[in-house]
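INFO batch 0412 | record 1 of 1 | parsing
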Amino acid sequence: MKAALLRRPNLIEENPLSIEEVPIPAIGSRQVLVKVAACGVCRSNLHMIEGDWAAMGLPAKSPIVPGHEIVGRVARLGDDCGGFKEGDRVGIQPLWSTCGACEFCLTGREQICRSRQITGETIDGGYAEYVVANANHLYQVPDNLKDSEAAPLFCPGITAYSAVKKAELRVGKRVAIFGIGGVGHMVIQIARLYGAEVIAVARSKQHLELASELGASVVVDISKGDREGWLKRIGPVDSCIVFAPSTELAQLAMTATKPGGTTVIGVSAEVGQLPFVDEKRIVGSVIGSRQDMKEVLGLASAGKIKPIYQEFKRETSNKILNMLNTGQIRARAVRVP
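INFO prediction complete | emitting tokens
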């Protein structure tokens, strides 16, 4: 099969991914071979490819095939894969496997299992014609969702859903969302399902326009240098959710959160000094559990949330990631091999 391989992290401008012929992977017990129909392109892929996460030991092997939000069809089943059959349309999220026995797995927090494997980071991912999935972490895709529409649900969708749950929103609450990209545009939609008023904070015109289209009541153009003027105009908010990879914006979110409120951080950033006397909470958030994933698929199938995506059929993975890096992707890019 053809696959986009990362042999050594490098700047995306140097085109570090190479298209190569590699063997179709073998499968073991409780594993499924999936023929890839669509794979979302995530900024996390870019961070790993450029070496930003080397200190965390990622990528965990070399070479590796990136890509962790995948929709395809079952091509082959290993032993003990009840519940699936050849031809089923399925999805794979970043959480490729967990131990199932630790304190985190047993308390509904399996996404922070210390033995977890991550699709496209520790295990080969979806920038290929075929990918191996763990049957315990494989999902049936609803029939009324297109391949490219469903793929972003398996990272932006579940990541946004998990973050919004941690923000403890409800009718009458106000939430500021920092970063309106692949994940942020899903956060807006899910926050509105809770009845919260949404303030969107972004830098680019296309993201500000997208936020308005999705129902944000206030959009803030942070590129104009008015770092805190908008906050004086609208006042502090009950919660902030940060998916802009920026220490400046993470610290601004802390300032914008009212006493007793919650700031949810889904990116690498330094939040600065914690104003403990205001009893503000900072909560980290990463992907989500299998139950979260099933709930996200149900919301999408019911038409309550909808990924905004651009489909790329002929462009190379290097080119798509370059476009993401230079702000040319409105919400989510989806790679169609």
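INFO post-check: The longest strand covers residues 31-41.
INFO record closed
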